[in-house]
Each structure stands twice: as C-alpha cells, then as structure tokens.
Amino acid sequence: MVLMILAAAAVWFAWPRPIAVDLATLTKGPMEVTIDDEAKTRVRHVYAVSAPIAGKVLRISPPLHIGDQVTKDETVVAVMQPTLPSFHDARTHEELRAALAAADAAVSLAATEMRRIEAALAFSRTELRRAEALARTEAISLKVLDGARFDVETNEAALASAKAQLEVRRNERDSVAARLGEQSGAVPDPDPACCIQLRAPVTGSVLNIIQESEGVVQAGAPLIEIGDPLDLEIVADLLSTDAVLIKPGAPVWIDNWGGSPVQGRVERVDPAGFTKISALGIEEQRVRTTVDFTDPPAKWSALGHDYRVIVHVTIWKAVDVLTVPVGALFRQGDDWAVFAVRDGRARATIIKVGQRNNRTAEVLSGLAAGDRVVLHPSDRVTGGVAVAERDVQ
Predict the structure, then answer these.
(1) Environment class of 328 (CB within 10 Å of its CB; exposed 0-12, middle 13-18, buried 19+)
(2) Could you tell me the pLDDT band of residue 280, with boundaries at 50, 70 and 90?
(3) Helices (H) and strands (E) in the chain, counts
(4) Where is the YknX-like C-terminal permuted SH3-like domain positioned along the sequence (predicted)?
(5) Tell me, which fold does domain 52-83+191-227 have in CATH?
(6) Which CATH class for the 17-31+320-389 domain?
(7) Which of 13, 31, 58, 352 is least surrounded by Cβ atoms within 10 Å, i.e. has the fewest?
(8) Residue 94 in contact with residue 191, Cβ under 8 Å?
C-alpha cells in the first residue's frame, strides 16, 4: 500500500504542469489606424515688422513685452533714428581736406566770374541806352542798335548761368564740409522730429521681440513679430511614406499638450518634401502636413505659438471588425500566427491579418469571435503544450 502511494506521488510530481500565460479573448468592435508623430502649433499669420531704413532702434516707453496686446495703426512697436556717420581713416581725412580747399577755390572762381559778367552786363546796358538815344536822332544805324541789344541779352543769360554755377559750387563745398565736419566724435542729442515710428500692422499680440536692446540695424532687419494667438494651426513633419497615405480632410486628434484631447482635421499635405536629420542622426524625408482645429477655441485656448503636441492622423477606420492584440502575433515562415487556446492547450494557428495599429490588428481569417489567444508567448510555449491563465493578484 505504501509503495502504491509513493508511486502515485512520484507520478503526480513528474506530471508536467500547465504553463501560466496571459490570455486575451477576441471580440468585434471599432478600430482605427492612425499615424502618430510630434508636431507644433503656430500662428497662421505672423507679421514681422522690419526696419525700413538702416538706423538706430530706440527704446520705447512703455516697453513692449511678449504677450502684450497691440492695435493696428495705433500701437507704436518700434522707434528708429538715423545712424550717425561713421569715422574715416587718416588718408580719407586728408583727401577730404584737399577736396574742401578745392571746393572753396571753385566757389571763389565762380563768384569772381559772376562779378565779371555783372560788370559786363552793366556796361552793355549803358551802351544800349546810348544806342537808343542816338537811334532816335538817326545818328546810328539799326544794326548797331540791334548789336547793343544782343550784347545785353547775352550778358543776362551769362549772368544767370554764372549764378547757377556759383550755387552748384557752394553745394559741392557744403557736401565736402559736411563729410569732413562730422568727425568731431560728439554725439548730438536725439531729435524726436527726425525719428520714425513703426506702428503695429495688425491687431493681435506680440509673439517675439527680435531686437530687444537699443542698437543699430540694417534696412530690412526684423524687429518684432505680431499675430493672433487664437488663429492657430498645427504643423507636423511626417515621414514621406506616411504622408502619401493621408488625404486632406482626414480626422485628427491631438493630445499630450497638457490638456484634454482635442479634435482637428488635415488641411493640407505639402507636395514637396525635405530632408531632416533625426535624433539618431538618420536622414529622413519629411513632408509638412498642416492641421486645423475643429473643436471650439475654448477647448484649446491655453495653447500658444510653437507649443509641442502629439497628432494622431486617422488613415483607416471601421466600426465592426474582429481584432487581435498585436502582442499575440508572431511570424511562422511568411505568415502571421498566434497560439490559440483549445481544450487547455496552445495550438499554433495561421491567420490572415489586415489593417493594424500599435495595439491591435484586424483578423481576416483563421480566428473567430470568442477565441482566446496567448499574449506575448515565451519560448516555453509550443504547439500542444498545456497552458493556464495566469492569476492576476
């Protein structure tokens, strides 16, 4: 009797126990396939105020800060003053001094020439009066009288030319003197009348102040950016292999931005891609995709310009499909397979898979609703081995 008990105990201890596994039951339900990636928000229309001339940007009072509200054509966003002339080297200085001396001489020459012509004009007018007096007594011919008149008109024209020439020489002299006299090093007091006030081109908020400090900028240099923070859109740089699957109008849900998920739709997929280096140093072809919000601004008003979000773009969706967890799939040759549990044993079953996402896959054939499959099977799970569902404490 003792021997029989010992034999039974030995058989019981030697008998293989079922392997504890995690099981999942297949059901039918809704399923969608999405393309997930990081994205960022941006104001749809950003207005960059730039310097219209090369000059000095002055501080305005009160100063503007990022987020301040501005009004179109009313709020002064920048004040500019013409720059002071730059210093020149010693050789240029000597050249300017020589040019100034030459200009002074030219002015004296033009003034002397003008006085000579004035004297000639006064003499010709006296001669004309004498000729007119003699012509009334017919003491001279008409030809002599016409010659006297011609001399007066000629001298008057010459005097007008000399005056213009003198004005030209004086202006040239003033130009050289200005270039030479601006090297004293003294900084004149700013004249408010000479400053240019740049006003906001649109009503909105200050998004970025590029030129914060007072300083000299070149013409066209950006100074400040303005936009409406409620006029937001989302820009995602998606892989080109994913972008070809996306159609304008596709639904999108946005999360991981610090608030509740919000809805959107694809507005545009750019027709041209660009190369982007990933965090791992891999060159990737990316395509810019623009997403618009469909939820009211009250749900996402906390978002601002250049905020990080995660977008999930739906490329396929069904209401009633049979799905299996991705964790149950494994490769058997070129086919997908799962370990289906039947009569307490794992049976390797070939299935046909359709659409899939990072959680579930669509089952086209090989399984039915209610079947149970092994999740994440280990190397101990083989075809025909006894399995039991692991107890979850």
Answers:
(1) buried
(2) confident
(3) 4, 21
(4) 321-388
(5) OB fold (Dihydrolipoamide Acetyltransferase, E2P) (2.40.50)
(6) mainly beta
(7) 13
(8) no
The set of residues, in sequence order, having a beta carbon less than 8 Å from that of 305 and lying 6+ positions away, is 41, 42, 43, 46, 207, 227, 229, 232
Strands 387-389 and 19-25: parallel
Neighbours of 156 (CB within 10 A): 14
Of 347, 350, 360, nearest to 316 (Cα)? 360
**pLDDT at residue 20 in the model:** 86
Cβ count within 10 A of residue 199 = 14
pLDDT at 185: 46
Q: What angle is formed at CA 209 by the lines to CA 203 and CA 211, rounded to 5 degrees? A: 130
Q: Give the contacts of 183 (CB within 8 A, at least 6 positions apart).
A: 87, 88, 93
CA 303 to chain centre: 18
Entry field: residues in the chain:
393
> How far apart are the C-alpha atoms of 254 and 349, rounded to whole Å?
38
Inter-axis angle of helices 142-181 and 90-136, nearest 10: 160
Q: Quick check: pTM over 0.70?
A: no
CATH of 33-43+229-318 given 3.40.50.720, 3.40.190.10, 2.40.110.10, 2.40.30.170: 2.40.30.170
Residues of the chain with CATH 2.40.420.20: 17-31+320-389
Residue type at 150? Answer: F
Q: Model confidence at 28, in pLDDT bands (50, 70, 90)?
A: very high
Q: What are phi and psi of 100, to 5 degrees?
A: -65, -40
d(CA 330, CA 346): 14
d(CA 198, CA 75) in angstroms, rounded, equals: 9
The rounded distance, in Å, linking the Cα atoms of 49 and 182 is: 31
Average pLDDT, the chain: 87
pLDDT mean over 85-89: 71
Q: Is the pLDDT of residue 350 over 70?
A: yes
Contact, 265 vs 250, CB < 8 A? yes
Q: Count CB atoms within 10 A of the CB of residue 267.
A: 17
